[in-house]
Amino acid sequence: MSEPNPYADGEYQWGPGQGAGTPGYGYPQDATPGPGPGPYQAPAYQPTLPGGVVVPPQYPTGGAPAFALGDISVVGDQILTPSGPMPLRGAVWNAMDLSRTEEKISTVGIVLACLFVAACGLGLLFLLMKEQTTSGFVQITVNSGGKHHSTMIPAVRPDTIHWVMSQLNYARSLSV
């Protein structure tokens, strides 16, 4: 194990190939931190919270929001999103209904039908009791100023898509 590799012929060396003048790994050796003659410039100061979390950029607000859909808000002539502000003028709004409504026989109807079918045949009418459940989301996307943002709004009722579309049509009218 202490002998050198017998298959090495001297041409190939393990590790990244570094020719003359090629920078290596780690901190630049010929640079001086801060403003000076070296190529390295210190990054601009960015405030942090106590846990070392970077403070998100603060965007100017023009008053109370005209409306909000999920995490998308329209304030003045801007659209404020977590991915940054976008101009309201010329924004393209889209919605996609990813929800579904299911209808099934209620559990109470099944239990009552089982109890009353022995007493009389009219107990089967309890099987006509139905219940609706809505699940899923409505996806909203907005494109403006070269940026794109998407948000999901939970659908809790069958008419959630109608409410979202009315808000979206209002947003489209403001974007003209």
Q: Low-confidence parts, pLDDT < 50 over ≥5 residues?
A: none
The SSE string, one letter per element, is EEEEEHEEH
- For the largest sheet, list the strands in their spatial order: 1-2-3-4
DSSP strand count:
7
N- to C-terminal distance:
76 Å
General form: flat
* Separate helix tally: 2
The structure class reads alpha+beta
Task: Please summarize the sheet with the most strands.
Answer: 4 strands, antiparallel
How much beta, percentage-wise?
A: 25-35%
Observed structural traits:
176 residues; alpha+beta; 4-stranded antiparallel β-sheet; 3-stranded antiparallel β-sheet; 7 strands
What do these coordinates show?
The protein is an alpha+beta fold and 176 residues long. Helices cover 15% and strands 30% of the residues. The chain is built from 2 helices and 7 strands, in the order E-E-E-E-E-H-E-E-H. The protein has helices spanning 107-117, 160-174, and strands at 67-69, 72-75, 78-81, 84-87, 92-105, 130-144, 147-154. A 4-stranded antiparallel beta sheet has the order 1-2-3-4, with helices on one face. The longest helix has 15 residues, at 160-174. It is flat. The mean pLDDT is 78.
